[in-house]
Amino acid sequence: MLIWLLEDLLALDVALFGFITFRTIMAALTALAVSLLVGPIYIRFLISRKLGQPIRAVGPQTHFDKQGTPTMGGALILISIVLATLLWADLANRYVWTVLFTTTAFGAIGFVDDWRKLKYNDSRGISAAAKYALQSVAALAAAVFLYLTADVPGATELLVPFFKDVAVPLGLGFVVLTYFCIVGSSNAVNLTDGLDGLAIVPAVMVAIGLGIFAYAVGNTIFADYLGFPYIPGAGEVAIFCAALAGAGLGFLWFNTYPAQVFMGDIGALAVGAALGVVAVIVRQELVFVLMAGIFVIETVSVILQVASYKLTGKRIFRMAPIHHHFELKGWPEPKVIVRFWIIAVVLVLVGLATLKVR
Length: 358
What we know:
Layout: H1 2-9, H2 20-48, H3 74-88, H4 94-120, H5 128-148, E1 157-159, E2 167-169, H6 173-192, H7 200-217, H8 220-226, H9 237-255, H10 264-281, H11 285-291, H12 293-312, H13 322-328, H14 333-353
Antiparallel strand pairs: 1-2
């Protein structure tokens, strides 16, 4: 948007604004600044409206003291991401609008879920069936759009990490893969969002990693050097990733232990979907599974717990998702959080190593 304003309205030719690297940095700083400036005002608003988080009775007893902590803080993340992206990204780029649509659509679903929890003082929110139905509509819309507008073969091929020349044409399977990537990522982040700051830091790290991939595949020189298919326009997604990272760090300022505000589904569902659709655009779905390993582990722990209990009547973990298991083993909440952060950093670095190890 700023490029258009400078060139068309003010008749200025500012070459610096044409560089993705500069606009990426500015998007991160803008989103961070918006989060830090708006955050205190928004939290006071939530408190004044008594929009406090209902706590599950079956959760760890240490969480009962968090009853009433303001929730729906994810709206702060969404505002910061959207504003920074609109300011610094090329709005003629279809990928920019795809990630914005996906993020806001899932944010809207999360808003409805959060609002019902608060209105009825019930931690369950909307039914699982209704939530998945709405998520499916939004995810399929993004998937079909990306498939129909793909302008190069590489945009719908599955790249295999560590192999330079292995790319599997997906055809309509691209829509299916994209659907599961978006919906799965969205719900995985939502499951992880159970401790103060636990979900947002891995999300920030993954966003940074995917942003680097976006810049690489959207640049003809780097794509050729690294052995990736060149995806025209994908580089602009790096600006969105930077905005997500900046917004996430700004939110962490208020969400770090002990949290002043919780993300809520409005943030968790949106952030997860955003990461999923970006992974699809940059054609790194398999690497994304690795970099987002914390979210994968949390999800798998829930699946294993439910399956084990239904089949054998026994639980594998003391409580799922797995971060609650470590809490019940006696780990203080900050210890669980920081150790999961460390694992997230390592996994993202391993994922980034696949850029050259091919």
